[in-house]
Amino acid sequence: MKILKAIFIIEDDINGKEVLKKLERAGRTCYKSEDKTTDDSAEELIYKILDSGHESVIEHEKVTVRVICDRGVTHENVRHRIASYSQESTRYCNYSEDKFGNEITVIEPCFWVSDTEEDKRKREVWKKAMEASEKYYFKLLALGASPQEARSVLPNSLKTEIVMTMNLREWRHFFKLRTSQFAHPQMREIAVPLLKEFKRLIPVIFDDI
After folding, report:
1. Confidence at residue 35, expressed as pLDDT on a 0 to 100 scale
2. Average pLDDT per consecutive 10 residues, the chain (209 residues; last block may be shorter)
3. DSSP secondary structure code for residue 162 in this structure
4. Long-range contacts of the stretch 28-31 (C-beta < 8 A, 24+)
5. Closest CA to 73 of 108, 98, 26, 48
6. DSSP reduced 3-state for 90
7. What is the structure's pLDDT at 4?
């Protein structure tokens, strides 16, 4: 059994200034104010558009992100309906095969990280549960069960990859919900650093979140 930490990979090469220029061209169509376009006018216009609530303009740009996390987190990801998803399937992936290392891979929980005895005991119980899931998953396969049948004993902590594509308006919605203090800790583990990266790559759009 392999244990990993959750990570994300932004699949697109993002030029934030070009993103804003494209959005500016779309937004100025509404007012027929193309004559006011300058080399540095995009940021100001997009600020005004967001401030006015005219967020449909930012739907013209999208970003694709690959998230490697546990399956429990992806159940929350796919609640965002204005998006496209492609996810590693436990129906078709047989983790006894060589390409998976003949083992399952699980995501280490981010909430039992201290060196206290209490957290150490919790981590140990979790690890034993993961090992038991792996053991019985392989037993079912050995008895002739198909991957889609054997997956019934796989845990929420099972590692999965999900490719998510959303327009910028939906990413704003995603971050508002998933970076909240009320979001699940494992969702925040991905969403908080991802938001910081979006802010670094794309000016203006996510500054108020």
Report:
1. 93
2. 97 97 96 93 95 95 98 94 96 97 97 94 97 98 98 98 98 98 96 98 97
3. E
4. 30/54, 30/57
5. 108
6. coil
7. 97
151: amino acid identity, one letter: R
Neighbours of 208 (CB within 10 A): 10
Domain ranges of the chain: 2-14+62-201
* Predicted TM-score of the model (pTM): 0.94
State the DSSP H helix or E strand holding residue 141, giving kind and residue range, or none if neither. Answer: helix 117-142
pLDDT of residue 20: 97
pLDDT at 64: 98
Structure-token pair, residue 45: 């216009």
84-87 β-sheet, strand order: 7-10, 62-70, 159-167, 84-87
Active site residues: 178
- CA-based max dimension of the chain: 71
Helix (H) or strand (E) holding 70: strand 62-70
Assign 3-state DSSP to the chain and report helix, strand, coil percentages, each to 5. 50, 15, 35
3-state secondary structure 100-122: HCCCCEEECCCCCCCCCHHHHHH
Are 24 and 207 in contact by the 8 Å Cβ rule? The answer is no
CATH of domain 2-14+62-201: 3.30.1360.170
